[in-house]
Design brief:
Elements lengths: L1 E2 L3 E2 L15 H14 L4 E4 L4 E7 L7 E7 L7 E5 L2 E10 L4 E3 L5 H12 L3 E8 L4 E6 H11 L3 E3 H7 L1 E2 L10 H10 L13
Parallel strand pairs: 7-9
Antiparallel strand pairs: 1-2, 3-6, 4-5, 6-7, 8-11, 9-10, 10-12
Length: about 200
């Protein structure tokens, strides 16, 4: 923009490129690859089961699926094994600044989380607040208890700050959520105020 006396106003906006284009799924996939490569844990993103109906064979080397349907509702996003225990969790992102809408989690997913816990597995959700650039882990037990007792349509950010565990971003691994699993499932709840878990 031109101003009087040929003076141009310069804008020096500070831009943070650190997380540009990074989604929670990408971060978790990078983290899980790091865990696998370093023999820390075996955790994979679950494939969504589909029924293929129509395939285009015009290109014999790369057939193209033209029509397909979901066979069954998906459960949660990730599962695997860590230190001899089954791990199963759902990953969600929200642009909301004050609360996490429970419409983001389906009933069959909550039932699955309950079943995993009932059978002795570790289940939780990881929620990224994209506008705040904060990522929290919330135990499955805490999630289910909140839904059953509060009867609310969303979970406030304040609840995540109080009952959840913040996952700090690093270079490698990107989101070291297993450090929090060690804290809350192996270190005991008496360590809840550890600086790892709160911010």
């Amino acid at each position: 923009m031109k101003y009087p006396n040929k003076i141009k106003k310069l804008h020096h906006n500070k831009i943070n490129y650190a997380n540009r284009g990074m989604t929670l799924e990408n971060d978790l996939n990078l983290t899980n690859s790091y865990y696998l490569e370093n023999n820390i844990a075996i955790i994979y993103k679950k494939a969504t089961p589909i029924q293929v109906v129509k395939i285009n064979y015009d290109n014999k080397r790369h057939p193209l699926i033209k029509e397909a349907y979901f066979q069954t509702p998906s459960t949660t996003d990730y599962n695997g094994v860590y230190r001899g225990q089954y791990i199963d969790f759902e990953a969600k992102e929200t642009k909301n600044k004050t609360s996490f809408p429970l419409t983001n989690i389906h009933k069959h997913q909550l039932n699955h989380i309950e079943k995993v816990i009932e059978h002795g597995g570790i289940s939780f959700i990881i929620v990224r607040w994209t506008t705040l650039n904060k990522t929290y882990l919330l135990k499955g037990e805490t999630l289910i208890s909140y839904i059953n007792n509060k009867k609310q349509k969303s979970i406030p950010l304040t609840f995540f700050k109080k009952e959840g565990y913040i996952i700090k971003e690093n270079y490698q691994p990107r989101l070291d959520y297993l450090k929090i699993i060690d804290l809350i499932y192996r270190g005991g709840n008496n360590e809840k105020n550890n600086t790892l878990s709160k911010k």
